[in-house]
Specification:
Length: about 400
Amino acid sequence: MSTKDFVEKDYYKVLGVPKDATEAEIKKAYRKLARENHPDANKGDTKAEERFKEISEANDVLGDPKRRKEYDEARALFGNGGLRAGGPGGGSFNFDLGDLFGGAQGGAGGFGGGGGIGDVFGGLFNRGGGGARNQPRRGQDVESEVTLSFTEAIEGATVPLRMSSQQPCTACSGTGDKNGTPRVCPTCVGTGQVSRGSGGGFSLTDPCVDCKGRGLMAETPCEVCKGSGRAKSSRTMQVRIPAGVSDNQKIRLRGKGAPGERGGPNGDLYVVVHVDAHPVFGRKDDNLTVTVPVSFTEAALGGEVKVPTLGGPAVTLKLPAGTPNGRTMRARGKGAVRKDGTRGDLLVTVEVAVPKELDDKAREALETYREATASEDPRAELFQAAKGA
């Protein structure tokens, strides 16, 4: 973020709070907006992602009393894009902000000396020489995949996961130098950043391409990491997959990614879960599904039917007389685990089984039934509906 951006952005407006808001009010507003615009809750919404970044940036400044004070002072000085003062005859004149932030040489009555206006922004932009290279750096995010059985996905499981990520090189202790004595990068003078002009007296900072933002360069590059200070490392860890995950779901495990640098936090681990099919059960959202065959007499006369459950005892469902083929009944609480710990249902679909072979007694009974129901035409309504259309 450039100095111009900092001066022009209204962080109070971003969070929707007044300028005299208390710390508690700022925190409350930030949490509310962060929940609404978090990328995890707005998949693929780039506007929400940009909004979340603005909210986080505003909270970083206003949530810190010291930085908020510096911000308020800067806004008071440069709120109109320049420092104005009364000139002869009631006129006004503008100072070049580029001079105020390090462009002018210190002199009598000048602004370029130690202290003064430049110090207002010192803590916000970390413009001190060499300070950037000592800043903590967050570790990289790591993505992996795991395949679970159907039952493991429903009940949850702890699985071993082998991961590869960039970590501090053990051969050179992360210095990048074979002898452990790197030198300060001459391009960025150890800051890890270089400035480039953007016009109007302002400048933007980018990571130094020579030292790749580290601020240090190896005199004798390490043979293992080639001077980068980072090396590929593999490790196996036990990962707990929560109950109720579905096929192709991506799980985020905070702090389980690559280690940070210079005391920075670890990255996150993203695990893509693949689930094997089950020979009996299926899944529909938080519900499990199963198809249960019943005899013609059970469907016609009704009765009680035992139904298997996943990993538990069978349940008995009452089949009403005249149950049609394909009817779905519900066994409550026998489905997948939800996020709140409760379970979905088991959806039981009835499938009338037609016998492939009949003995003489069964055939005689069915012939008698056919004669008794010969006057009934199950397709009569079908043809009537077809004609009506």
